[in-house]
Amino acid sequence: MRRHWGLRRKFVILFLVFITLPTVLFGFRVYYQSSVSLNKQAEKDLVSKLEKNEQILLSIIKNVESMTSYMIYDQDFRTFFTTAEEEMHRLEYKNAVKGINGYFTFQLMSNEYISSVYLEGKDGHSLRFGEPIKGNEGRLDRVAEEGEGAPVWSHAYRVTSDWDGEKYLISVSRIVNDLNRINDPIGKVRIRLDSSKLFKHLEANASTQTGHYFVVTMQGDVVIHHNPSYVGKRYPDPKLTDWAINGELSSYNYETDSGNYLVVKKRLEGTNWISVAVVDEGELVKELHNVQGSVRNMVIVLFLLGMAGFAFFYQSNVKRIIALTTQIKQVENANFAASVDVNSSDEIGKLGMQFNKMVQNIKRYIDSEYKLKIKQKESELKALQSQMDPHFLYNTLDMIRWTARLENAMETGQLIEQLSKVFRMNVKNDNMWVLLEDELAYIQAYLELQKSRMGDRLDFSIVMDDRVKGHLVMKQMLQPLVENSIQHGFKQLPRQGMIYIRCYQANAQLWIDVIDNGWGFQTEDKTNDRHTGYALNNLKDRLNIAFGEKYGLVPLDTNEGAAYRLVLPLLNEEKLKEIQKETGE
Question: Where are the transmembrane segments (predicted)?
């Protein structure tokens, strides 16, 4: 069907396929890659945010736990914890309390997130530092006792501060054991952290980060969150909470009525807390709008430039060719008044001038000759053709070649010489076996003729190993493969077609590879021209009959184009006679 398409349709399809479609696909490709890159960068930033906040939080936890561990070894704290109530008037005790007061004053001023500190001695006497608070911490005492000297972190719980009113605190409680008798408790310590101030400390660089960060317990209660109303309560999204507690993957994409979110999590070592970072994918879409606009503008500009180029080329070339085609049809209908307007000296203009000149010569010739004389000449020509034998045609071609050289038409002479070689190979003998070098000479002459016809659209390379010289092969067995590449592999190929032929010895066999960089071999063409497909099938059958299933035509894997390998025996005259005897030739 494509061979019957007009030039206008072909050019429109060419414009759509090779200009419009690639431009649109390129635009979508850029947009897609930008989307993927932004999403990957968002996930990377989110993980970085999680890790950074985790490091800060773990550093705080370690620092606070170190304070409680310091109390076990420091003499002032040991004096406070072990002094009986009736001995609190002693100077040693008062100096110890003074040292403890200085220590915690420094800690409270250095760490704004520390709300208060509570110390309780063995006999029940206590010290308090920081803001005064009221709240039920009985459960924390029981949990600390169960910890048997290990620091135990609480969830967020509500208290009433004499300074700020109601707020949520996080505390670490610890039973302080005797340094020398490690199983004997001598006191208790509780260090309280302000949840809101702790979050602000973690999010000190929030303006440079994407998304938000929060911490929940293994039971799903919020410990730290940018929204203070969430702290101390169950996280409001059960689906997200369940994934944070039980999910195996460290990242998660989930949808809510408010949008789509990317979430990452990590368990905080030494606690029953889980840190979670969330980013709204809708924020990423906003960043994509600029990319999308740039891609859209680029596609529009490229499309308009393509349309302008299409219009210019159509007006300056295609339209003139269509006009020339129309006038040729007029000549076909015996209208010898046909003529084309020539307003350019380019190739199409020269073609138009030659057409006008040809029509005038034909008209003049018809006017000067009688139909009877024309018929007589046709009869004489037919008689002459019937008397020509192949050797006469070959000799005539040779004479024309030398005449062309004498007239300095070197290219024409070379073409006639190549055609003579091809013709001589066909009429040389009826034997189906030829030397490999003769077969390669024939195919080289054939390719030279095709190259002259196709110009820069075709090139070829033929390489032969010296070890395979003098071996016999089937006559014209390479031509079907080469024809298949040219007629099908290079059809509408947007680059120069290249055919590689290499002959060498391998595994005690003769291997001939025919490789092209076209669309690939299509041995069953769906057009009316089935010659090449039949020729390939015929070649396979001939090789199979002559040499058996061990030899034949083998397709090769290739990233570009197509490739076949002829696997043949290394034939000399003696082996050929054996094969001919077996096949009955």
Answer: 12-32
